Structures are given as structure tokens and as C-alpha cells.
Amino acid sequence: MPGDALLRAAGSLRAAYEAVDWASTPLGPVETWTTTLRNAVDIALHTRFPVTLLWGPEFVLIYNEAYAPIIADKHPAALGRTAEAVFPEAWDTIGPLMRHVRADHGAVWMEDLALPLQRNGRLEEAYFTFSYSPVRNEAGDIEGLIDIAVETTRQVVDQRRMRLHGRLREALSDVQRTADIAASALPVLRGDPDDLPLVDLHLAGGARHEPRLPDAPARPLAGRGLVLEETGAGRVAWLGLGRGGPETEPLLVVGLSEHLAADEPYLAFLRFIASSLSQALDRVTVREAERAVAAAERSMSEALQRSLLTTPLAPDDLQIAVRYLPAAAQAEIGGDWYDSFLLPDGPLTLVIGDVSGHDRHAAAAMAQVRNLLRGIAYTPGRSPAEVLAGLDRAMHGLALDLVATAVLAQVEQDADQERHGRHVLRWSNAGHPPPVLLDPDGRARLLESTPDPLLGVAAGRRTDHTVELTPGASVLLYTDGLIERRGVALEERLDWLARALDGCEAMDAEQLCDHVLDQLDDDVDDDVALLVVHAPREDPGGRA
């Protein structure tokens, strides 16, 4: 096979291939390559998945178009060079793996392996799932390795950040004084040196805890804004936490990691952390002030909140019930909402959600998100995961600077299911508490799954889940005000909710909503929204 024909499939890399002096590499001129190498190159260049060959005892790199973006500015110089020369920063990790395969000890598979790479002008934090497999010639001898790889950096980093946020929310859940916020939050934040190598909180009357960070930003922040500065400590992000005067403005200050690009996902994560701190700060510092708001304003606020929650719609064979309970000690409206509507192609769509914040801005943001979601969902043929992914894109494209959680579900029924009175609930979860399924036998169970990222944090792949709704089954959707309590672990409250529903199979949708609210104590300091869908049993006459 002539050299030009072999490299014809290289696409945009062809010029780079032709620029390599292959005769000066351990592989020699292209026309002298072995049949095994030629066949392997042909396979690699004809696949769209990232593939590189690591050939000969020196592990010389030959790769395809899909692999080039992974190594960024190492390309095109990496073509024809040895793996050790291309990846000196990772050689101590990958070198032994390559030699293991080369020595005929079997293929290796690594999942989400940390492999910092020198690329884009920095030693970047990076993670990969990949396999090194031997490539043999007709005699059975190993001539080289094939590396099939995918970069998982975004997924690994997003999951790490979601775990950190969960720990932070738990640490802040029972804070009672402003002075305790830093003591509770900083140990959690400093437990993630990969994202937050240097971090401090500047709160009114509090001491500075990180002397390596500057005392104040070069220019003042506006409210909950974000400012990036280059300082002696490297690049620093200042994030306002809201409330406070010009000399007591509460701030989150972070020395950014030199191994991460200061891109939108990184900055969105910092805003998300700042949002949680802002909520805790607001809750601690203004609760008493909010309770002093006139009763008339509270009544007006509640009326405004309820006006944003429309009457739910449902098909004839299902029951829908909803409830909204404002916080017991809060005069301002929040961002909780529910929704229920029928799509043009038949399925019933159910939504429960919560926009971050507890003020009129949160309610306005909720209205924006709710209406956006309705419009996107009304396009026929979209699954819940596709609708939430579309909502993420719309929020980003329309520059909605907010964070929200939600569960979106569709109740489907084909002709066979209709004959047997069965339905399928298909749902997707954007960082929201899990739905609860009450089976016809009276057993309640959480529909738990790994939540997808919150809305407005980071765009990414979203997942659909399904469960069958048999006659007599019910599903409860709710916001976090139902289960979150200061000083009580979230798992305990989820168990409490499941126990509260056990044995309630005889209740219809309205009764279930009332029963759940009857279980609450008076210490409800966040709004509660409920939505119950119930598939009635058929009576002996065949009627629901």
C-alpha cells in the first residue's frame, strides 16, 4: 500500500502526517511499515473515536483526528514521537502500563484515571478512561499497542463539585450565628484543594483565615457579582455574598487552581458555592428581620406566589393533587413551583422545581424557568431528559444567571397498557430530591438515582429513568422544604418520608397530600410544594 494511500484517511491530519520525517523515527519510512502496522493505522484513521497507536518498543505515537483535541497543543509535534517524549509528565503512570501490555501480560483497562497533562500552557488536571491492548502480527508477536480513550475530566470534576456542595449544604444547615458560618464552611471548602487551593470568607466582624490571599479586591463588587484579579497569589476570584455595607461586604475569595482553566464551568461552580453561602448568610442574619415584615405584606407575597402556580391538568384515568405551603417564618416568597399539563401527543407532564433564593427575584426567576420549561416541553416527542437539556441550553443562551433543581416526569401509556390500566412514569432528575413511589401493596420506596447536574450549573448529558405505575400506585414529587431540617441528616428525613407513606395505599391523591402535610411539625422554614399523581384501581365493573 503506497504511503499516500495509507494516509488518505487522515483527514485534517494528513498535512501533519506528511510533514513528519518518518525515516528519522523508530518506525522508518512509511513504505517500509509492516502489514500489521499498516492495517492498524488504517483502522485508527477510519474510526471517529479517539484512537492512538503506541508502536514498537519505543511506543511511537500514531493517532487519528478524534485523538488530536485530547492532547491539544501537543499536536502535531506528537506524531512520530515516543510516548515518553510526548507525555513526560504522565510517564511514571502510563509507562508501566504500556510495558505490562508489551510484555504480553494482557490488556489494561483504566477508568477515570487521573493523568495531569501539560497542555494549553499549563499542567492541566485531567482524567481518562482508556484501554491499552496488544496488536499482534500473523506470527502472534506483539508489534505495538492500540489505545482507545475518552477524556472524562468534566464528568469527574462535576461529580466532585456536586459532592462538595452536598457537604457544604449539610455543614451550613444548622448554623445559627453569622460568626459560625466561616467555622462550619471553611473546613468543608478546604477539603477540596483541587478546585479551591486557597479559600477564605470575609464576613462582618470575622478574622481573615488565609494570609496568602489579599485582604480586599482592587475594585468593589456589586452585590453577588464575581471579579477575577491577577495577584501575587495567582489568579483570585472575589464573589460577593450579598447583604452588607461598603465596609462590611461579605465576600468569598478563592485562589484559583493553576491546573484548571478559569472557564464558565469553573466560575459557575464558584457562583454555586457562593449562592449556598449567601443563602446561609441570609438565613442567619435576616430571619428575625423578615419575621418583622407586616402581616399584610406576607399575605400579599403568598398570594403572588400562589398566582404563579396554575391549576393542574390530568387525563381522566389519573388523579393529580397539589399543595403549596409557605415557610412558617418567612415573609418573602420563594422559588418553589409545581406544574401539570398535557402534551399535544398525549403524555401527561409533571414538574416539581426550586429556584435558588427566597425573595421576589427568586419568584421572578421561577416564573422565567417555569415558562421556558413549558414552552420547550410542549414540543412533541421530547423525553424528560431532552426537555431539561433544552432548558439548560435556553437558560445559558438567554443569560439567566440562576441555579435551580427540578424533576420532570411524563406519564405514558400505549394501547396494551391502556387495556390493563397500567402506565409508565418516565422522569429525569436535575439535582432534586428523589420522587417516592407508593406501590399498590402499601410499600413506599424512593426512586433514587444519581442526580444529573443542577439547572444553570453545567450543561451535560441528562438521563431518563422509568418505572411502571400499576393500578393503585401513587408517586409523590416534592421540594426540599418538606424534608430538610436543621441538625437532621438528609438521609434520616428521606427515611421519615418513606415511613410516613407506608400503608397509605387506600388514599387517593388529595388524601395523600393532606396526610403528608399533617406529618409536618411547626418548624418549617422553607417553602413546601407537593404534587401527587395517583392511578386509581378499577372496580369490579371495570371503572376507575
TrEMBL record:
Residues 315-535 form the PPM-type phosphatase domain. GO terms for molecular function: phosphatase activity. The keyword Transmembrane does not apply. SMART domains: PP2C_SIG. It comes from the Bacteria. InterPro entries: Bact_Sigma-Reg (IPR052016), PAS_4 (IPR013656), PPM-type-like_dom_sf (IPR036457), PPM-type_phosphatase-like_dom (IPR001932). The keyword Hydrolase applies. Gene3D superfamilies: PAS domain (3.30.450.20), PPM-type phosphatase domain (3.60.40.10). Keywords: Hydrolase. SUPFAM superfamilies: PP2C-like. This is Serine/threonine-protein phosphatase.
